[in-house]
Amino acid sequence: MQKIITTIITLAVALGLASSVQAGRGSDGQLNLLYWQAPSTMNPNLSGGTKELEASSVVLEPLARYDEKGNMLPWLAEEIPTVENGGVSKDLTSITWKIKKGIKWSDGSALTADDAVFTYEYCTNPDTGCTSTNYYKDIQSVKAIGSNTVKIQFTVPKPFPYATFVGYNSPILQKAQFDGCQGAKAQECTKQNFYPIGTGPFKVVDFKPNDVIVFEANPNYRDASKPAFNKLVFKGGGDATSAARAVLETGEMDYAWNLQVEPEILSKMAQAGKGTVVSAFGTAVERLMVNFTNPSPALGEDRSEYIGGNNNRNAHPFLSDYNVRRALSLAIDRQILVDAGYGQAGKISCNVLPAPAIYASTANDECKTQNIAEANRLLDAAGWKRGSDGIRQKGGVRISILYQTSTNSVRQATQAFIKEMWKQIGVETELRNISASVFFGGDVGSPDTYQKFFADIEMYTNTFSGTDPETYMSNWTCKEMAQKRNKWGGNNMPRWCNAAYDALSAEMSKTAAIKDRIRLAKEMNDMLMQDYAMIPLIHRGGVSAHSNSITGPRMNEWDSELWNIADWRRK
After folding, report:
1. How far apart are CA 397 and CA 317, in angstroms?
2. Long-range contacts at 10-16 (CB < 8 A, ≥ 24 apart)
């Protein structure tokens, strides 16, 4: 028998068919991924961090997702519902998804419409602290119509009804596993949060928070020949530079994510010939988030909390002054930041919504040119006078900023540059960096997460699934403010609240014409930018690297970078 197998393989090689003969689930051994920002949970609903979304995406799946060009693809669903195929009602108030038959969870049980209904109920329970609630807005009901059909009824017509259960931000949980874990008990379900049962190509077999995750091939995955790897090791920790080195120079790892590394260092590493750097531009913007609330520790439980209607009674002592916020932006030379930290993988951005190109506003281009003189003039006119130490103050309040971000060499260099730029306008800056695993983690007990925002300014990047910005731009509505009552699960970190902005968001959710959606998206972006709710810095291209021994990675800035990991192979 062995001779026969050997003969078949020999003939296959001669005919160029060896890869087909050898293909099969687990045939390529172990795949090693290095995500230097280590995940703290495998439940993406309890952390807004990209690292958790990436890790969980190989286990938990949505009904549809996006490819590397931003095209929406049916995933667990049979097809993308549209008005033309009857999946979206003509009045745009409902969408009906049909789940592919025969899909199983990794424990062998069947995926059903009840799982989707449960996921909706889990995430919309106000006590859960779900970080993706904005993917479930304007919904009246989610119902199972039989075992494989899910109908979502909206409260308003939805010209773009593809937020719920679409993309890696909104995957489906197994009802049987998570029932009893919704609401106040969500954070307590450690086993479920660390070891979710999924429909994806891999299942979790060992999870060590902020360290390493070990996966094995899902024995019940819907394609019997996939994944090619029987084991997946997802290593966290370290830094971006060492992650790049592990793929490009030493060849220890197969894939390294988010290589926020100085361009000249990355280029030199790539010359070793062991790996390939891949990059793509999507919607990522490195930005400064401005805290509109008071982060003083003296406030106790009211620290960084928005208190009171449209008039915040816990306003920030100096960042609540428009002139201060605008001066901080004007003082920054963004081209220096691009050149020093990003090279070809960065562009100056004056918008939080830089892409797709049709949505990019040109109304905020003032930020492209540093203007120290105007920044100083604004502060002088607003009564912020320099003290004997050169730091501006008014009414006993000094403009002294605690500026935090995650630990990373490029980010620390950016902080240092900005500190010197702000010094020129009489602003004192204390720099703080926090381990990325903690900063982007979902631990509600930690004071150091970006959601808690116990600082004046914080810097990070985030993106959104797909190419339509409706859900993303709703992040900064009043109800999305991260605060105690939602366990800091909201997406509005600045705690910026504007009724006019909320009205634009509501209007966009029911606007069909693309020209009007473009207008609304730009208006929302401009409102944020011109009130300096955040200060954009750099439109970042995603940069990662994979070993030359791996085929299949297709860099994706519209969904998880691991979106097609079932297709990856060892050469």
Report:
1. 7
2. none
pLDDT in tens, 279-293: 999 999 999 999 999
C-beta of residue 104 within 8 angstroms of C-beta of residue 222: yes
- Structural domain that includes position 403: 283-466+534-540
Q: What is the pLDDT of residues 323-368, one digit of tens each?
A: 999 999 999 999 999 999 998 889 999 999 999 999 999 999 999 9
Task: Answer whether residue 242 is part of any domain.
Answer: no
pLDDT at 310: 55
Question: In terms of Cα–Cα distance, which of 469, 458, 259, 449 is closest to 351?
Answer: 469
Give the domain CATH number at 337: 3.10.105.10
pLDDT, tens only, 84-138 = 999 999 999 999 999 999 999 999 999 999 999 999 999 999 999 999 998 999 9
- Strand order in 149-154's β-sheet? 94-98, 149-154, 139-144
Two structure tokens written together for 254: 């197969």
Per-position DSSP letters for 347-406, written without gaps between them:
EE-S-S---SGGG--STTGGGGS--HHHHHHHHHHTT-EE-TTS-EEETTEE-EEEEEEE
pTM of this prediction? 0.79
Please check whether residue 433 lies inside any domain of the structure. Answer: yes
Q: Is residue 346 part of a domain?
A: yes
Domain assignment present for residue 319? The answer is: yes
pLDDT, tens only, 144-195 = 999 999 999 999 999 999 999 999 999 999 999 999 999 999 999 999 999 9
Q: What is the DSSP string of 526-541?
A: HHHHHTTSEEEEEEEE
Asked if 431 and 415 count as a contact pair (C-beta separation under 8 A), the reply is yes
Number of domains composing the chain: 1
Assess contact for 330 and 373: CB atoms under 8 A.
no
Dist. CA 229–CA 215, nearest whole Å: 10
